[in-house]
């Protein structure tokens, strides 16, 4: 009985998310001591609302990273979708909001499909392919906008409320994030395509032997990433009631940082949605905490860069520890 309890304890504490959760709790305590005002309900809601787009981009990025790839174009896709939706909405205010939601998703799917074609079927290196499309999509966003900005008075009430309205006291954009988290968890954990995404990232050769088509799975991962980026573009403009072609710059790095912080292996094959959720919450608290401290806001990018390095180091040490434990257990069995 005692050995069983010890085994359960080791299993819990050996889980990387347990350490991540402990770190998150410590962060909350430190932040509460230094800036207690950030834990009012209104502050928490606004903090999560302002970071909600990062969560959506992180879920899409997670799909691609698990396959062993990377998508640097998500922020540019966000910009392109946001510009096109805002431009058409401001001149067609009688059109219902759900049309612009579908349009944002559609633009994202097209961008993701293009990335998926380059990487999955033309076998281009993901970082090179998406670095190119990052500039292409941003260029299209500039052309579509003509350098123009859209301001609150140019957004319909229904469009703005789609993200900024509330249901049961929670912002609509946060309900969308919750739904996406749930759907992503079900997709990755309980569907055949989700399991194939893990298989491709774990071992491409073994996956191919098992009959899994790498190109098709990679294409799907990029399409999902693009779709969520396109939706994020529409939601960004609805959430802030503002739009310009340069919006979302460097958001792709924050999304990747959330994934890495949440335990998604940059080499592919590993990562769970619960880790990304914790990573998103940690990043939200960190960015909001920094913004409340005088003089530290200018260091935000540097601090996020340091977080990425630390998170990658933790991932490396964790994976090595797991490998050593597995080898030790095998040796004991032999």
From TrEMBL:
InterPro entries: ABC_transp_permease. It is a multi-pass membrane protein. Keywords: Cell membrane, Membrane, Transmembrane, Transmembrane helix. The chain crosses the membrane at residues 20-39, 51-70, 98-120, 127-150, 170-190, 217-238, 250-269, 276-296, 302-318. It is found in: Cell membrane. Pfam families: BPD_transp_2 (PF02653). This is Rhamnose transport system permease protein. It comes from Murimonas intestini. The lineage of its organism: Bacteria, Bacillati, Bacillota, Clostridia, Lachnospirales.
